[in-house]
Amino acid sequence: MKKYAMIYDENLCIGCQGCLVACKNENKVPDGVSRLEVHSNMKGSFPNLKIDFQRHSCVMCDESPCVDVCPTHASFKLDNGITMIDERTCIGCKYCILACPYDARYVDPITHAVSKCTFCFDTRVGRGDEPACVSVCPTDALIFGDLNDENSFIRKVASQNSLSFPKQELGTKPKLAFIKNKKGGYYE
Ligand code: SF4
Ligand code: SF4
Ligand code: SF4
């Protein structure tokens, strides 16, 4: 059984927003909402200006509060660890939006169901391709793969770096990990 995960290296991200554009195109995300954002934080002033970038999206919790609170089981987990939403059974109650500590969900203005990042399982990964955001990143700041494959690149990167897991004190066990900006990242 696969266990999908992603690593975002803050040191490599240049904030180009290519990942966001690719996600919107691949997953047909409507205007006004987004499955991911890349935030920027500026410090100092020119010529001593420093910019940090930070990905913001579903962190694909192993212990998912969004799934626990869903009254219709429209939010559910696949065996490979990806949290999905069945828009046909989502009643738009927004319990999951309130329960998500990562502010990762939104109401799709067209379907009126809740939506979020799916690691592109339904659009790309299920057929063997990388997620859209990963495939376009010009600096390889995003790494995606199977944690259960001991020969996978993500296992190698994970073993060679100190990983940070957002809000891990909540016990949600995220599968989106960060390699912190060694020049002074700002997350949390
Ligand atoms: S495509 Fe890569 S470099 Fe560009 S903003 Fe996204 S993660 Fe950062
Ligand atoms: S980040 Fe939010 S939407 Fe994603 S699995 Fe965790 S609780 Fe659910
Ligand atoms: S994995 Fe897919 S759905 Fe998630 S942010 Fe990247 S492109 Fe969007």
From TrEMBL:
Keyword terms, alphabetized: 4Fe-4S, Iron, Iron-sulfur, Metal-binding
Every 4Fe-4S ferredoxin-type domain range: 4-33, 47-80, 81-110
GO molecular function: 4 iron, 4 sulfur cluster binding; metal ion binding
InterPro entries: 4Fe4S_Fe-S-bd (IPR017896), 4Fe4S_Fe_S_CS (IPR017900), ET_IronSulfur_Cluster-Binding (IPR050954)
Highest rank taxon of the organism: Bacteria
Protein name: 4Fe-4S dicluster domain-containing protein
Lineage, opening ranks: Bacteria, Pseudomonadati, Campylobacterota, Epsilonproteobacteria, Campylobacterales
